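Anyone opening a protein record will find just a pair of labelled lines. The record below illustrates this layout.
***
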Amino acid sequence: MRVLRFILVIVVIGYAGWLAWPFLSPFLEGAGPEAAASRSGAVVALDSGGDMPTAALWIGAVVLYLLSALLLGAGNPRAVAAYFLGFMADIVLRLAMSPNRGVSADIAARSAEAVPAPAGLDPQWIVIAALLLVGLLVMAASRRVRRSRPVGHLTP
C-alpha cells in the first residue's frame, strides 16, 4: 500500500504541476507577476468581464491538489477531501466556465494535446475520468488498515 501511495503522490503532484505550468513558466523565464498573469490568461480584472473566479478556481485547484498529495504522503485520510475539492474546482474550471476564453480554453487545448482521443470523444471527458479514477485510488490508499488485537494487548 505504501508503494501505491508513493505513486499516487507523484501522479497528483505531476498533474498539479501540469495544471499550474502556464502560470509558472513565465516566472521561470524571469518575467514579472503581471507578465505571468497576462501570458497565462488568468488576468484578475474585476471590471473587465470578471475573470477573478476563474483565476481563484485555477489557483485553488492547484493548491488543493498539492495539499492532497502532501496529506496522502503523510498517510492522512483527509487527503481524500482535499483531492475531491480540487477535483470539483477543476471540473468547474473545465466545464462550467466559458470554454472559449482564458484558462478554460488553455486547459481544453492542452488536454486535447496530451490525451489522444478516439473519434467522436472529447478528450476532456477522458481526462475527467482519469482524474476520478485517481481520486478513487487516493480514497483506497488513504484508508487506514485496522489490525485486530486480542483483548488486553497494548499497542506495540
User: Anything to note?
Assistant: The first helix runs from residue 2 to 28. The helical segments are 2-28, 33-40, 52-73, 79-96, 102-114, 123-142.
